[in-house]
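Worked problem 6 (solution included).
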Amino acid sequence: MPLTLSGDGSITGAIFNRPAFRVLRTNDLNINNNTVTTVTYNSVEIDTGNCFNTSNGRFTPNEAGYYFVFASITLSAELGARLSDAEVLLRKNGTVIALGQLDGTNSFPDDTVSPVVSGLIQMNGSTDYLDVAAKIIVTSSVPQIEGSSSGMNYFHGFKLAI
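Solution. The predicted structure is:
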């Protein structure tokens, strides 16, 4: 359906969900045990509004509205380590607003897990920003965000056309 602009300023037809973004972390990152770490992303697949900053991992939309965002982080420990907790945190302006957690009270049987988080967040279009952080607790070894070229570590979102 074509987009039509009428003389009174109204729009009919297709409405796009923009700005939109999808970023990936494709290489490993060692992180400290039991410490919240901001995730940065080194591969940008989509950034329609040039709103994503890869140096600090922040999405700062340039349009006010409601945004649907989704993130997944693959957290791992060396084989045989006891991984007891893994979290991916969605933050707005530095404050946690959603949490994806895999709580391994009895420890996970695997050394790699991928918690996910999503949310529908209102943004002001100027100063509000979103970022993702991760935390892992292991009893031994070096915890890390496991890089993946297949898109296992991602953060993406888009403005709802409402």
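Discussion: The radius of gyration is 18 Å.
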